[in-house]
């Protein structure tokens, strides 16, 4: 018998507690405020004062307290976020430059994602790679449920007339941003003038919740009324609160799937039945939805308002951080001149986010729509809108454009979607995938949870030599020595890395015209800023070791036989500096036959070339830090 939701939540909390700062080492808001004030005075006395930090606490509260949340809770959350951010990165940077600074145990556990690789870490050289040697003891999907993806969507090539298999899809983001091209097998065989064949998108997921919710989203997208579908789908997909009309459409879609879909897996059918029946899943009160959303947000690591220069952006994003509201009907309502404002639709909590049958894993924290979108493209969308548009409006428009295009394809029959509950490591599922003869496959971040050689074996069995694979890894830095600033005990080298990283961040911000939008450097822990720099320097070491595990070679930008290409998303224009999960994921394209060239935008920003030169000069002066090999 499976564990209850409460038991799974307790299990996850116990695991998270092992990596957190001990309670007796945490500080109160009052203590943080005093410490920050002293630091600011010290910097002023040194003749190097910090620039003023915007008081987003008062700005957000002046805009109004969110309904459904106790005022004292909102104020405390904002104050903790403000005190945590207002002296970053300078305050933490000062301590990391101190010769007496040492890595403390809980920081090392967090850096290595546990204790299993500590013995490797102690003796490894910079650039050494320690591969995952066995699968995790417990499936990740058993204790964590993602309401939507936590990584930036990127354009994955797919071909009409072929099948794309998405492993661990979480949501439809891969299809939403797919680069669908002509020239699939079906079209080539039909010759010129042949009727275009549809793209078949087949998804496999371990998480029954992801299958059920994504089925509802696809049904609403293709079957819903044109006047309602877009806002309703965006709310179901991303928002913690819905309009009542969205809830009705959601229940109708769940009921329709139960009556029309054939042979639904029992776990998926159970979830859909729960959502379709108001007696099993009554409307979620706004206060409960807001309270549960806020409990999942960390004021010390996920509050984004302090990163923004413009007041209107800080208020919009700060309110989103507090409430999780996205694409709500009243969020963009404006009072027309000479007219009374129409009554706001009454909000209700998201059923998919806050009402699931017992036994479904609890929601993951740090959920943010900013984690799934390329920030610079969304910013351009906002610039193309009215002058009052915020970056959050730009995110809404960027997603809306792609949603409308996907709806057209779905309704026209040029894309079909089939979602299945299954573990691709099972032989029966692997065989099922191979029968589909996929032209392309995406693996999400399965690379983080399956040993390298095992994954290469699975990919070969599923797609043979004609399939092009793509995926990403978020945890590669945890198994690569040198990918974090804490890997450098030498004070001089650590300071030089900090200087290079901070300089690069400022130069990229300025070169891409982001200074009017984002603070530079961002108010983040210096680990986050320096680690992005280090990870760009060292990801080729990890990539080479990963390729060798599958008998492949790294091919850079040109494609080739039995090759793999990889790049760090955070070094390109489609990254998201406001992502709650960081910007240093490595994206890969590979194959066991011919690999097409990577997408044109896989080329890093020119500034990173100069950055690498600075890195090379640094390590020529420091032989002890020379890049090492791979511990296979």
From TrEMBL:
User: Which domain of life does the UniProt lineage start with?
Assistant: Eukaryota
Return the annotated region ranges for Disordered.
1-27, 331-353
Composition bias, Basic and acidic residues: 8-27
Biased composition range(s): Basic residues: 334-344
What is the name listed in the Swiss-Prot or TrEMBL entry for this protein?
Answer: Uncharacterized protein
Protein species of origin: Kipferlia bialata
State the organism's lineage.
Answer: Eukaryota, Metamonada, Carpediemonas-like organisms, Kipferlia
């Amino acid at each position: 018998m499976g564990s209850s939701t409460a038991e799974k939540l307790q299990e996850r909390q116990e695991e998270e507690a092992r990596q957190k700062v001990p309670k007796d080492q945490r500080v109160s808001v009052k203590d943080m405020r005093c410490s920050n004030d002293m630091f600011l005075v010290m910097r002023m006395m040194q003749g190097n004062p910090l620039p003023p930090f915007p008081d987003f606490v008062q700005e957000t509260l002046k805009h109004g307290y969110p309904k459904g949340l106790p005022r004292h809770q909102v104020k405390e959350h904002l104050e903790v976020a403000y005190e945590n951010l207002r002296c970053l990165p300078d305050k933490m940077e000062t301590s990391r430059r101190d010769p007496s600074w040492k890595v403390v145990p809980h920081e090392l556990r967090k850096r290595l994602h546990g204790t299993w690789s500590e013995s490797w870490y102690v003796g490894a050289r910079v650039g050494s790679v320690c591969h995952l040697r066995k699968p995790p003891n417990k499936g990740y999907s058993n204790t964590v449920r993602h309401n939507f993806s936590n990584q930036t969507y990127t354009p994955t090539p797919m071909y009409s007339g072929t099948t794309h298999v998405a492993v661990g899809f979480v949501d439809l983001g891969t299809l939403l941003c797919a680069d669908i091209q002509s020239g699939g097998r079906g079209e080539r065989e039909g010759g010129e003038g042949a009727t275009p064949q549809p793209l078949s998108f087949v998804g496999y997921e371990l998480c029954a919740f992801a299958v059920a919710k994504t089925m509802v989203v696809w049904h609403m997208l293709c079957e819903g009324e044109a006047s309602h579908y877009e806002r309703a789908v965006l709310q179901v997909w991303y928002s913690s609160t819905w309009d009542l009309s969205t809830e009705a459409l959601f229940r109708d879609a769940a009921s329709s799937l139960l009556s029309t879909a054939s042979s639904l897996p029992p776990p998926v059918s159970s979830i859909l039945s729960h959502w379709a029946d108001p007696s099993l899943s009554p409307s979620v009160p706004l206060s409960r939805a807001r309270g549960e959303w806020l409990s999942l947000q960390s004021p010390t690591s996920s509050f984004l308002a302090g990163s923004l220069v413009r007041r209107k952006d800080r208020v919009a994003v700060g309110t989103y951080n507090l409430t999780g509201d996205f694409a709500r009907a009243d969020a963009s309502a404006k009072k027309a001149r000479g007219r009374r404002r129409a009554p706001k639709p009454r909000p209700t909590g998201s059923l998919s986010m806050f009402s699931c049958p017992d036994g479904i894993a609890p929601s993951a924290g740090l959920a943010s729509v900013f984690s799934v979108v390329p920030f610079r493209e969304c910013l351009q969308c906002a610039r193309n809108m009215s002058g009052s548009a915020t970056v959050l409006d730009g995110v809404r428009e960027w997603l809306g454009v792609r949603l409308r295009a996907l709806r057209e394809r779905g309704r026209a029959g040029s894309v079909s979607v089939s979602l299945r509950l299954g573990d691709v490591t099972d032989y029966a599922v692997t065989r099922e995938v191979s029968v589909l003869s996929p032209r392309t496959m995406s693996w999400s971040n399965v690379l983080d949870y399956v040993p390298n050689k095992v994954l290469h074996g699975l990919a070969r069995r599923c797609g043979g030599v004609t399939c092009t694979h793509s995926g990403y890894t978020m945890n590669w830095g945890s198994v690569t020595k040198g990918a974090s600033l804490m890997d450098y005990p030498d004070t001089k080298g650590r300071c030089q890395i900090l200087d290079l990283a901070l300089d690069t961040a400022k130069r990229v911000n300025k070169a891409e015209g982001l200074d009017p939008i984002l603070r530079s450097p961002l108010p983040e822990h210096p680990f986050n800023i320096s680690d992005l720099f280090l990870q760009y320097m060292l990801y080729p070491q990890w990539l080479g070791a990963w390729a060798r595990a599958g008998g492949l070679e790294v091919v850079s930008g040109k494609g080739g036989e039995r090759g793999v290409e990889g790049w760090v998303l955070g070094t390109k224009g489609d990254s998201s500096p406001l992502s709650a999960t960081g910007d240093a994921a490595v994206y890969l394209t590979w194959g066991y036959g011919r690999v097409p060239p990577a997408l044109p935008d896989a080329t890093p920003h020119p500034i990173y070339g100069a950055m690498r030169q600075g890195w090379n000069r640094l390590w020529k002066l420091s032989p002890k830090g020379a890049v090492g090999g791979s511990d296979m």
